[in-house]
Structures are given as C-alpha cells and as structure tokens.
Design goal:
CATH superfamily: MFS general substrate transporter like domains
Shape: globular
Distance between the termini: 28 Å
CATH architecture: Up-down Bundle
Structural class: mainly alpha
CATH class: Mainly Alpha
Radius of gyration: 21 Å
Low-confidence stretches: 194-209
Mean pLDDT: 82
Order of helices and strands: HHHHHHHHHHHHHHHHHH
CATH topology: Growth Hormone, Chain: A
Length: 418
C-alpha cells in the first residue's frame, strides 16, 4: 500500500516551514560571508581561518547544546533560535548601512550566530522523529536532503545578486527568512515525548529531575557505548572533512582570483542539482537497499567523482564532478542517519545528534584553514588529489568494518541493535 505524504502528517508542514526558512536564512548570506571576510580583512589566509573559527565555535557550543535541547521544549527553542538569528542579521545590515561595519564587529556577530547554530541548531532535527515517527524517518531524511539542495541553490545566487545591489541586502533577507521561521514554529505542536513510539521503556523526559551535567554524561556515555556509532563517526567524519575542504577550496580559489560572487555561487549548481535528483531517487529506494553495503558503495563513488576536478580545473568540469558526487548523498544520509537516529530513543535525540555532529565537525572544522594554507603550496589540483585520497580511505575503512558493512535494509532495522 502506498504510504501517505509526509505533508499529510499533522505537524509536518509547520516543522518543515521552520526548518526550511532557518536554512534559507543561512543560505542567503553563505557566499556573502566569505566575500565580506576577505574584503574587510584583505587577506585570503585570514578569511580561511575565519571560516575555521566559526566552525570551532559551533563545535564548542554543540557539545552542551544537545543536552540543553533534550531538557527543554523543542518548539520554544526553535522560536528562540529563529528570533535571535533574525536580530543578529538585522543588526549586521543596519551597521553596514550606517557605514560602521568593521571586521571585528562583523566577526563578532558572525561568531555569535555560529554559537547559536551550534547550541540550538539541532533542535529541529531532534524534533523530527516526534513529527514523523521512526518508521518514516529515512524518507524524511531523503526529502530533507533534496530540500536543502533546492534552498541552497536558490539562496546562494539570490544572496550574491542582492549583494551586488547593496551589500546590506543579504543580511536583511536572512533576517526576513528567520522571522518567517519564527512564525512557522509558532504553529508547531509536538506530541508528548512519553507517547512517542521510539522512546524506550526506561527513557523519559528528565526535565529538572536530574542535573544538567548528569544528563550530559549520560547521553555521551550512551553514544560511545555503541560501537556502531563510534565506527560510523570516524568513517563519516573523514569523508565530511574531505567534502568540506573541497567546498572551501573551490570558494577560496575563486574569491582569490576575483571571481564575481554570483559566479561563485553558481559553482555549486552541479552539487545542488545532483542532490535534488538524488533525493527523488532516495525516497523511492531507501527502504530496499542494504544500508551497510550501500554506504560503502556511495563513499567509493564519491571519491571517484572528484577525480576529473583534479585533472581539469574548469567551471564545466567542477560542476560535473560535484554533480556526480552529490547524486548519492541523499541516499547516504537516509541510510546512515536513518539507521542511527531511528534507533535512538526520543529523549536522547538531542544528545546523540550533538555527540555525533560534534565529532564529525571536529574533523571538518579545520577544512577552511587547511585549504587556505595548502592551496598556495600544492595548487588547486594537488589539494583535490589529497582530499580524494582521504575519501578513498574512508570507503576502505567502511568496507573493512563488519559493524558498518552488515547494516541491513530499513525494514530489518527493528531486529538489529545500534
């Protein structure tokens, strides 16, 4: 029997609206942030390190953010995140209009935004299983991947076009998107945590019944007790580091050569298009593919897809490489994230995601600095070869690890342990 659309679920449209417009708020200023950092500092190295500093700030706040999310009402936290980000970007735009936006002020506001993203950014994801249930999680993850690509495809060129009209406009647009996310979250009504099927018999919303530190330690201990999660974090983290570094390499190289911001944003068209197409396919096949073998195959395919970009550094080749590499990413997310988070108790969603993402981001946080340091030494092509080698290593480690390789298709997930 054909399953109902996710949008027919009572709270999914409100959740989808809040999550989508929070993402849109980031997408509109994403390219602009790199360009502004370079313009205000006058140094490609400083711009690369600034990107790393933002990543480190997100990682630091994410460590405790998951515990905070698990202890508090998700709807309220989404409202706080959306409202705070709207104020930050509105302030940024107003300072620019007034001619008072210095690099220290710009960097400070961006770092505050990164801190909020790290601390509260996992709230919508933690709430997702309460909206769709564990049995629809893989499909929702597939849809999210395509949605993310569509928003980023539209958001980055829009931000660059607004930047060309007036450098304050992307920040005002981000503030507007976050305000719409706030309104969407206002209509969100989440089911009680104790009634959600994924909650285990001994799991419950702790609220104030235990200390913050106790909950923090309990959540991280639960995560690291799972050898499957630990193995997956190392493998995925290595792959993510390579992908983030390649993204940074493309952007920094184009910024350094004075490429128009609109053209820089269009360099991501291949990746976004591949992700959107891959999302459609993933929603249809994600329940039928053995997850472990699928993960191994996708990692190997992604590594091979970047090889043309190392050999021929031209716009068409870059778009083709990123297109091929991104086609299987929604399926990868559905298989890897779907297995881990559909098997995670509801009242540990925030802490599990915090632990997993913190570990993965520790791998990726230095990608901007590495790209900024190595591109002048190795050249763009040489840097891409190094990242391909790391991605190949991640695929090899996944193939050699039986805990990853033997994960079955999603209908069998209830019968296996995490």
């Amino acid at each position: 029997m054909k399953s109902r659309s996710l949008f027919s679920l009572p709270n999914y449209p409100a959740w989808f609206g809040a999550d989508t417009f929070l993402l849109a708020g980031s997408a509109v200023h994403w390219i602009v942030i790199s360009v502004m950092a370079y313009q205000l500092s006058g140094s490609i190295t400083v711009a690369g390190w600034f990107s790393t500093a933002r990543g480190i700030m997100s990682v630091i706040t994410q460590v405790t953010g998951g515990t905070f999310i698990d202890r508090h009402d998700h709807r309220t936290l989404i409202l706080v995140q959306a409202g705070s980000c709207a104020l930050i970007w509105l302030t940024m735009g107003m300072f620019y209009v007034a001619g008072s936006l210095s690099f220290p002020l710009f960097a400070g506001l961006c770092l505050v935004s990164s801190a909020i993203f790290g601390f509260l950014g996992g709230t919508t994801n933690a709430a997702l299983i309460r909206v769709v249930g564990p049995e629809r999680y893989a499909q929702a993850e597939s849809l999210n991947q395509g949605r993310d690509a569509a928003v980023n495809t539209a958001g980055s060129p829009l931000g660059a076009a607004l930047f060309g009209l007036n450098q304050a406009f992307p920040f005002f647009a981000s503030a507007l998107c976050d305000a719409v996310a706030f309104v969407s979250a206002f209509f969100l009504r989440l089911p009680d945590i104790t009634k959600t099927p994924a909650t285990g018999p001994d799991d419950r919303a702790k609220g104030g019944a235990s200390s913050f530190l106790t909950d923090l330690v309990d959540g991280w201990r639960w995560v690291f007790a799972s050898k499957t999660i630990v193995s997956a974090v190392g493998i995925v983290g290595l792959c993510q580091f390579s992908i983030f570094a390649l993204d940074q390499a493309v952007n920094l190289s184009l910024v350094q050569t004075g490429t128009d911001p609109l053209l820089i944003s269009l360099s991501n068209v291949g990746m976004a298009t591949g992700t959107m197409l891959g999302s459609v396919v993933s929603m249809r096949v994600c329940d039928n593919i053995p997850a472990g073998r699928g993960i191994v195959a996708i990692l190997a395919l992604m590594a091979a897809s970047y090889l043309p970009m190392a050999l021929w550094q031209s716009y068409p080749v870059i778009i083709a490489s990123t297109f091929l590499a991104s086609l299987p990413t929604p399926l990868f997310a559905a298989l890897a994230n779907g297995f881990v988070f559909s098997k995670t108790p509801v009242d540990k969603q925030g802490r599990t995601r915090s632990a997993v993402m913190t570990a993965v981001m520790l791998f990726a946080s230095g990608s901007g600095a590495l790209a900024g340091e190595l591109i002048p030494r190795l050249g763009f092509g040489g840097f891409v070869y190094v990242m391909i080698a790391l991605m190949t290593l991640s695929a090899t480690l996944a193939a050699l690890n039986p805990r990853i390789r033997r994960i079955p298709a999603s209908p069998e997930w209830p019968n296996v342990t995490l």
